[in-house]
Amino acid sequence: MPLPESLTCVLCGAAYREDPSRYSCPECGELGTLRVSYDYDCINALASRESLAATPFRDHWRYLPLLPLAAEQVEFPLTVGATPLYPVPGLRRALGLERLWIKDDTANPSASLKDRASSVVLLKGQEFGCREFAAASTGNAGASLACLSAALGLPCHIFVPETAPRAKVAQLLIFGADVLSIRGSYSEAFSLCVEAADRFGWYNRNTGYNPYTVEGKKTVALEITEQLGWEPPDTVIVATGDGCILSGVWKGFTDLHRLGWIPRLPRLVAAQAEGSQAIKQAFDGDGTIRPVTEDTLADSISVALPRNGAMAVQDLRASGGIAVTVSDGEILEAMPLLGGTAGLFAEPAAAAAVAALVKLVERGDVSSAERVVVLSTGHGLKDVDAALRAVEAPEPLDCSVDAVRERIGRP
Ligand SMILES: *Cc1c(COP(=O)(O)O)cnc(C)c1O
Ligand SMILES: [Zn+2]
User: Fold this and answer.
1) Contact 188, 138 (CB under 8 A)
2) Mean per-residue pLDDT for 164-173?
3) Within 10 A of 56 (CB to CB), how many other CB atoms are there?
4) Which of 120, 199, 201, 322 is 20 to 30 A from 98 in CA distance terms?
């Protein structure tokens, strides 16, 4: 399939060719992430909306002509993508919205959207000739790389802050990854992973830093568009930490637009935690990403220095979008709202996108007829301790029908 034409630095605009050791711009450093671009005529010669409709593959490899891989066909041991887009009637009623959908990416193999990026990076790394992989992670990127590399029989090294939620660490260990639990923050683990991968020759999946993470994550936008019958949504709400999912979503829609497959682009909403809002501050200010303190229970979007921040701010602006912050309290309210109206269990970071939607509705920043898609990016079982803070545990009852009758207030 057509390989990328060039990789362009988001900060200085310098263009590079593909290279296994090229992650970010050598002039701008780690924050100079690279945008991948293609020869779109070449893609149009290979694929179309009609050819997609005819492909037998349901998982995200159906979009292979739009992915940065040389492979003509992919057989992957687990199903990545092909996640449901639910119309959530109960949540529509609760919020007074007529056309709302939840894209349930918790249905991926490791229960988060990160599998889209990990799967593409694992194949790309192997095409580059690498057999050993590494990632720094607040939890999900690591769990995802560990899960998929286990299925492929490849070794991986995962750097996590020692504070990562236990369920995510359990995933890493069960998948047999080499887990490096770091006394430090995610940002520190990130830099250490860059150094170690370089030193020991591992292919590095770090979010944003590896340019193919955005390419992998874009398939969520491709799926949403196809699921909506090629009628793109008006608004897409994305929980945002490093800003890689946000840019992936934008890349998916802009690729489709450049190919002439969709007539218009949605606006994006970046949902950030009040306690970790570097992208919101840069978006509201001069566009420059400055480190913030990270303090939120939503670990997956708790990021002091967003590595894909510059690209995310540019993309948010290009989409005519906005950044919204939500408090931990609002996140904890959104979890049972989504669970109780839609039967979907989201981890705090994913629920932040629902909390942002609630806020937009309250402020009148979204109209009842608008076509809105909210991404549910990670499963609630990944952080049960946080979930139990969102609800009240029941008082134990005596084991008798009388106690039940009293409890439910019936005669
Ligand atoms: C990684 C992650 C995010 C944020 O993605 P970024 O690319 O870091 O902005 C949101 N929700 C969940 C569940 C995640 O795992
Ligand atoms: Zn640069």
Assistant:
1) no
2) 90
3) 5
4) 322
- Would you state the pLDDT for residue 138? 83
User: pTM of this prediction?
Assistant: 0.97
- What phi, psi does 244 have (nearest 5°)? -80, -40
> Which residue among 171, 242, 250 is best mutated to probe the pocket of ligand 1, counting the most ligand atoms within 8 A of its Cβ?
242
Token pair for 12? 């200085």
Tokens of 180: 């490096």
3-state class percentages of the chain: helix first, strand second, coil last, to nearest 5: 45, 15, 40
The backbone torsions φ and ψ at residue 237, rounded to the nearest 5 degrees and listed phi first, read -105, 125
Return the C-alpha torsion angle 301, 247, 172, 155, nearest 10. -150
The type of residue at 228 is L
CB of 395 closer than 8 Å to CB of 124: no
pLDDT score for 397: 95
Minimum CA distance residue for ligand 1 atom 7: 244
CB atoms within 10 A of CB 50: 7
> What pLDDT score was predicted for residue 71?
95
Give me the pLDDT at residue 276, please: 97
Summarize the confidence of residues 177-198 as an average pLDDT: 94
Residue 168: the pLDDT is: 87
Give residue ranges with CB within 6 A of ligand 1.
Answer: 112, 114, 140, 207, 239-246, 300-301, 347, 349-350, 377-378
Residues whose CB is less than 8 angstroms from the CB of residue 17 and which lie 6 or more positions away in sequence, other chains included: 6, 7
Which residues have a Cβ under 8 Å from the Cβ of 382 and sit 6 or more positions away?
A: 111, 112, 139, 140, 143, 165, 167, 168, 171, 347
